[in-house]
Predict the structure.
Amino acid sequence: MFEINASNARQWSRIGSRGVFGQAILAVAEYHPEMMVISADLGNSSGLDRFKKTYPDQFLNIGIAEQNMIGVAAGLAKEGHNVFATSFAPFITMRAAEQVRMNLGYMEMNVKAVAIGSGVSMAFLGNSHYGIEDAAIMRAIPNITVVCPADCAEIFKTVQAAAEFKGPMYIRLTGAVGNPPVYTEDYSFEVGKAIILSEPAEVTFIAAGSMVYESLEAAKLLLESGVKAGVINMHTIKPLDAKAVECALQISKLIVTVEEHSIIGGLGSAIAEYKAGKRNAPPQLILGLPDVFDVTGDYRFLLEKHELVASKISQRVLSCLKNT
């Protein structure tokens, strides 16, 4: 269906998560004639222009009306369609929260709600378009699986897996155009199963989305300071891969969760909740976006500002180790 290699990874990085999502949907639709894709007037912004032309009878532009979009998506799913519904992260989670809760969570309709622009990747559109609370909201709704791909290759893997998955799922797409790839060759992906990129060690990063790459780079910097760090790609934030977390807790002196999401309610909170029931669990450093409305600015500037780049992450880990 698609090949993951260094050349494709570079090309996908230049296209960015939205364009790659559109390519993935187009590739997967060939094998799923029951698929329907719905957009809240963001077809082109979601990379869906080629899908619209190729499968015009399987695409609906519902307009800027996310609440209605989720209702339509649930109705189509009830009739047997495999539905992907897309909009910007704050609109598909907060504006349509009640519809997501009742139609997807409660009714367990087979709808994949896809959030483009999660985190701060919408940059100059500012707080109205930042998706910093979306995972927290989706995690709190029963029956909804929450997945956050690490890079563009994993977007392909996620869309492919989501098309086979039965039930409601929330997919949050982080990162901007030009984000470096994590994967340059094929690998095994399974919803709910974390990927050990480097074995748990004295310090273990548990990261999701755009922060997986930054964690890998931070681990390299820590090694230069004599600190060995492992990295786990926890692409499925709900349900957590308990086995992978347990392994990290048993081996590590410090757990570091890293995410392009508020420090409240996301991956860091999920790991902390799991740890709360464990005796002698190591301390946890929760890195993410602060509990504030942010300034409007360039994507990379915002990551630097909140110390979510490898150099700053490694410094914060070293500082934490000195104080523990």
